[in-house]
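Example is below:
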Amino acid sequence: MTDDALHHVEANGLRFAYLEQGEGPLVLLLHGFPDTPHTWDAARPALAADGFRVVCPFMRGYPPTEAPATDDYDADTLGRDVLALVEALGEERAIVVGHDWGASATYSAAGLGPQRLRAIVTVAVPHPAAMRPSPRLLWALRHFFTLSRRGVAGRIRRDELRMIDTLVRRWSPGWDVPPAETEAAKQVLGRPGALEAALGYYRCLSPRPPPGQRRPVTVPAAAFAGTDDIIPPELFERARVRYRDRYEVVRVPGSHFMHRQHPEPFVRELRRVTQELSA
């Protein structure tokens, strides 16, 4: 069974809400956009059964986690959230697993505070410092421009959040997305101020990686690449130059939301990788 009771903790100046299950070494599971901690509903109980304490926070600005008073959503701030959460949860180190913006936060955390991390696992996003612009990549990432514009939150809201479904389908070639797949995200992002906060991640994005992501990754790492994703696995292989310790590219079926599209093979590989990285 999963534990959907909300817990709260103060970290990096904000009050974070999170889901928790299991006991043992800490594993943080970080979601992206448009998403919530429930994106990990298949992975959380599986990792808990393997003897881990699994914590899935609502990321900065996603209700019921607190939003900052100013537009503080850059990747290194997200990385400092991760490091502060490890400490606030009473642990010295953690394995951090991040998808989408959660992956960006994970990369920054690895650069800013590797002593707090046992290992990192990133999903669907190669190391940003290893990515090079190309027409295909720029087209795949065109939503970064759209979602960074002022006023887009109001337009999405007036359209009854249909853009959330549009984005998930666009990023999921080959997946017949179930009608209820985006319901948890819509419930969270439909709350007052939530879309403005979540889109702050895009507003604060810089063409150049932040300092935390310009440093090499010095902890053991794995990156999950969907075989049908709009970001091809080859970009994850190209990122090897950013790593100084173990680095594995794990190819699994599916696209950007591979952990939702094909939960069984994804969770099987995540359990294997997490056990190996914790040894």
Notes: Residues 75 and 192 are 23 Å apart (CA to CA).
